[in-house]
Fold these 2 entries.
Entry 1:
Amino acid sequence: MIFPLHAVRPVPDNDRLPGLDLLRSLAILWVMLFHSFLVGGLGADWAWLSRFGWMGVDLFFVLSGFLIGAQVLTPLAEGQGFSWADFYLRRAFRILPAYWVVLALYLLWPAFREATGMEAGWKFALFLVNLDIDYLKNTAFSHAWSLCVEEHFYWLFPMVAVALLRRPALWKFALVCGSLVVAGVLLRAAIWRHGMDTDPEFLRNWFVENLYYPTWTRLDGLLAGIALAVWKTRRPQSWARARRHANLALAAGLLTMALAFWLFCDRVGFVANTLGWPVLSTGLALLVFAGAGRNSLIGRWQIPLVGWLAAISYSLYLVHKAIYHLVQARWGDDLAGSGWLAFAVYGATAVAGGALLHYGVEKPGLALRQRLLRALKANTPAATVQGIS
């Protein structure tokens, strides 16, 4: 079969589901709570919320695997084609404008940095900082590690998807995913064992550098999201039937998350860093499934401001650590130990900074993207485009 490459059906940015918006909003708030350690924490009252806040990044991974996976797989499942230019143009203008502006601030304005040391700019520009970082010395803008994982996913997944769908079979997909999950468990086990044998006190931060940041150890969340996307696009009737039990999936997801919390009580322990990641990703995937429609408790109603917070979540993720630092430099002594007030000031200021970046850079970039996509479509005659057989 010949698929015209220009015929990909895009997923509109404003085609939002309340449940997914809620999860995206919870993810960014959870990450922000976790990173409050940069300003001494927000007090004992918030410790139980902030302790596992790093899991918000894994929730972003599952959401990304599901949404980007569906964007790639839907046209292929419908017998259309995959436009490489369309996909990468969409991803570039979604990610790069705000990212480059924040990177420029980090490089050119040292006072903006939440830490004094920072890796070389080219590592951030090429999205390689998660693979080569001295975490003892250079922690400024280190949260860009997750964007590196996302970018690697964008680079590789479409090629893998197109290759597997030349002769589609679910057993191939299951074999690939299962192999990657098992390989991830074994790889993390080997890294953990070697690290504990050579540096049991974590003096070199090998946990972050070799186990937590690298792309090849953090595939579980993306794979869980991709599995949902494959299910939805390749078995739509089965997906529709299962959606009748979305609230059951929600309950199962919450129970699985409780198990993940228990496994990660020792975040740097062996069990957490072998079995913990697939368990956590499974729980988050169940929550995403529950939110991926309007027939669940979390997907039924549009909560005020949640959609807006979800919309600015990317920009907010980029700047929140630097904003914390700027607020602490100006009012840190006054806010120390003030509980609710510190929570409100740090949070509101970070949200304001994220909104400024969103409306000042991210949205204009998305508007330019739409104009370029229309021009690309108008200048790409269907008859002249080669297909994928």
Entry 2:
Amino acid sequence: MAEQILLQGKILGTEEFLLAGAAEARPARSAGEDLVTGRSQWISLLCEVLPRALLADLGLARILLGSSGGGQFLVVLPGEARTAAEAFLSAAAAQIADWSAGVVRLIWGITDNLGDWAVIRKRLNEELHRKRNAPLGASAAGAFDPRARASNTTGDAYFAKELGAKLREASEVGWSPEEPGKVTPGPGKYSWSITPNLSPDGILLARHAAPSDDGKAAAPVQTLARRAQGRSAWGVLRGDVDNFGLRLRRVHSIEEHVPLSVLYKQFFAGELEVICSLPEFWKKVSIIYCGGDDFAVYGAWDSLIALAREVQRLFHRFTEENLKDYPGPEGKTISMAIALAPETYYPLASVYEEAGRNLELAKSADKDCIYLLGRVLEWRRLSDASELKDTVTRLVRDFRMSKQLLYQLRAFYRRDADDSETQHSWQFQRRFNRILSGTRDREFQKLRSHLISELAGRKTAEIKLRPAGLVALEWARLVTEV
């Protein structure tokens, strides 16, 4: 028997589990947000609590915890603890599957801590890959029993009321062996404090929720929509680090792997909680989850755009300071996407799913970008769109231009997309003059010239309208609607 073994655990089915709340949230609109956030917090806490509870139950030191969070964990164990660890995780996996109606799965791989880290990682991944591709392996006898997949109403009440509501105010979480798949807000046989900073004795958890008008609960989505500037609308923002897995695969030792994983986790959980607590965000956004390399929040549409810009700015500074010795761009950029709810009373899970699709579109088109209002933009172009939005908004508000102006300007993009012939600069200018004609005010003419140059570019004989311009027009339309 080897003197030391490595155990890596993974939680599968997270996305499907969160999206399963879409249909269930429709009959109880006020409970939809608590159910989705409660489920996401359950997944996040399982990754933190299970490895800590395993070490505590085996009487082992906390220092043997390598990394945790983001849907996985890594611990170092003595070789003689293999059987006990297997039994512990099997019991937890059974209850996790039961409470999630079989959607969420806990799998793990164990290997000797011998050889090069690349070889160790390969052995772990091969075992995890084998279990991932054998979803019925642990439940062969009852796999086709229709009762096994029935919704667990006890679990849903636990997700919505205890983790969705009570956890926001709890100072600690607990775990007990009688219910190994459950994390309790409050004390248990083993308990850990919830800390705002990384600590060996506590759990770092982002759980900010915008307060309701009376301050007694989390604000529902209709309240968040009313707090937006312009149109009353809400949405979901999702972000994901570009090529994070590739960055981890390039490290050469476990001593390098663990600190790097912890570094990203600390950034997302710590920084996002701080940002959401700032005056411009704390009443307008709520956190769904923070992972090891991704996050999701929901809230007023205008705050989501500002929040995305701030997170990207801080992440860029974070990678410049902490990853300067790592070659290549992997893990140093972040892409995001925003999806807006088509109506105020709309399931959070459905908008979360749409934001996920938009994020896939953004990452397929490019890296280090954002999907916003129907277009994928590089981050540096988002500032251009914001500036242009302010220009259009001033034309509408300060110079009393009709709001029909926005629809007429958007028509340029439809015409540009439909025309098979190239649109020349003089044609664009003539059409534009028909829309923005009238006053000779110097400030108006200055804004008008700036708008033309930003939409079509400067000193070009042929017009190719910029994607940032369409985002700016949609943005201005949302700002000026009441």
